[in-house]
Amino acid sequence: MSETLIEKAARLSSEKKYKESMHFYELALEADPNSPWACMGKAEIFSNLGQMKDALKWYNKTDIMALDNMAPWGYYKIAYAHYMLGNPDKAIAYIDKVLELDPSYHHAWFAKGVILSDCYDMTRMHERATDAIHCYDMELESYPDDADAMYNKGLILEQTGKNQEALECFEGVIRLMPKQASAYISKGDILSYLNKYDDAIACYDIALELEPNSASGMYNKSRLLYFLDKIQEASDMLEKASAINPNLPDVDELKKMLNRRIEFSRDIHKKVVRQRKD
Predict the structure, then answer these.
(1) Considering the chain, what is the average pLDDT of its residues?
(2) What pLDDT, on a 0 to 100 scale, did the predictor assign at position 121?
(3) Is the distance from CB of 166 to CB of 154 less than 8 angstroms?
(4) What's the rounded mean pLDDT across residues 256-268?
(5) pLDDT tens digits for range 148-197
(6) How do residues 182-237 score in pLDDT, each as one tens digit?
(7) How far apart are CA 257 and CA 240, in angstroms?
(8) Per-residue confidence at 143, pLDDT binned at 50, 70, 90?
(9) Quick one: angle between helices 18-31 and 36-48, nearest 10?
(10) Could you give the dihedral angle defined by the CA atoms of residues 54, 57, 63 and 68, in that order, rounded to the nearest 10 degrees?
(11) HSE on the CB side for 218, CA within 13 Å?
(12) How many CB atoms lie within 10 A of CB 238?
């Protein structure tokens, strides 16, 4: 009886008829209070509704190992709930359970990489960065064309100063996804670190062709233009970027530096004009 109820509940849930689905899961639990599939089903509904605390409550009631070959998936879902609730260490602990049961579960490798790269602080940066890169490498071993894993790996390599390796990652992403503006922005950043300024500007320009309103593309190009002493062009670009996204990091500091340079140039110009008059 409970299996029939669970099947009906699962079908309704797949159709996003969550209220009706919940009703049948509850009927299944009346018939079998320890049904792992009914507990898991209720947890999934709460998760789909974004109610992670309730989802976690029902995940914790689920005998995950009773799900048999679906146990890795069950632990993966618990990890996701913990991550969404801001518990990265617990999320990683459950991801590790997934990988103990199934080392080829590539979604878990990718997810662990994301959690590690999102949550390490500066004091543990290199330790967690190494672990995160390993996770992305494991994902890419199974799926060499996973552009997201390649891009995330590139960002970590960039943050840890491995610019040439990062560049190779971003170029790989561009080969796979030639219209992804963020990959061109990241490639532009690396090229600027490598003193290849013209190539960097060209990358930012491609990104802005793909996404004309990319505030990050404008901001990063503005920083490089400032470094290249193209002050007015940098200032104009920064104004556009901050109008689109006023919350860009360090935008106020860059504005101050640009304004100081503009004022300095004006002062020099005034002095030259006065000297000529004299």
Answers:
(1) 90
(2) 52
(3) yes
(4) 68
(5) 999 999 999 998 899 999 999 999 999 999 999 999 999 999 999 999 99
(6) 999 999 999 999 999 999 999 999 999 999 999 999 999 999 999 999 999 999 99
(7) 17
(8) very high
(9) 160
(10) 40
(11) 20
(12) 24
Residues 6+ apart with CB under 8 A from 133: 113, 153, 156, 157
Whole-prediction pTM value? 0.84
Residue entry with tokens 């060209």: 202
Q: Break the chain down into helix, strand, coil percent, rounded to 5.
A: 80, 0, 20
| Cβ atoms of 197 and 228 closer than 8 Å | yes
Residues 52 and 90: their CA atoms lie apart, in Å, by: 14
Token pair of 159 as six digits: 């943050």
Residue 46's Cβ-count burial label (10 Å; 0-12, 13-18, 19+) is: buried
Give the distance from CA 226 to its chain's centroid. Answer: 28
Query: Is the confidence at residue 2, as pLDDT, over 60?
Result: no
The helix (H) or strand (E) run that includes residue 25 is helix 18-31
User: Tokens 């690396």 identify what position?
Assistant: 190
